[in-house]
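Journal club side-thread
Mid-discussion, someone asked how the predicted structure for our own chain would compare to the paper's figures. Pasting it here so we can look after the session.
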Amino acid sequence: MSDTVYLTKQKMVELEKELEYLTTTKRIEIAQKIADARSHGDLSENADYDAAKEEQGLLELKIQKINFMLSKAQIIKAGQFPDDKIYILSKVKLKDLDRNEFVEYTIVSAEEADFLENKISVTSLVGKALLGKTLGEKISVKVPAGTLNYEIVEISKS
């Protein structure tokens, strides 16, 4: 399995800005919290110190994760994929055949998935089922809540 992390240029910039903030401003804030808690005396029974150290550990994990993603990142653009089939960065309009309603999704990498923005991951159950499909095809996807039945009514680039 490839370790490549596929990101849009926008997401790459967001991650770089977040990393800059975390490694500078946030590290300084947490170091100050630790110093303040230390000044209160006995560290063995100091809840503020323990909380600040835990926050520091979580921050360092987040920094490591972002560094890893950026080190493995490959920038992708919607224009590099044809729009005759569904690929990553395709925007798809689906007809829910059971409810007679329409839904729209943008297929993105796992790192960019955001259900509230209708961005679903290529690794999600629906995302996997859609990849490589063409206009007019019907799919059935088993999800924890049951089976979803869709017809692909539109494919475009995001």
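Post-session note: The CA atoms of residues 22 and 28 lie 9 Å apart.
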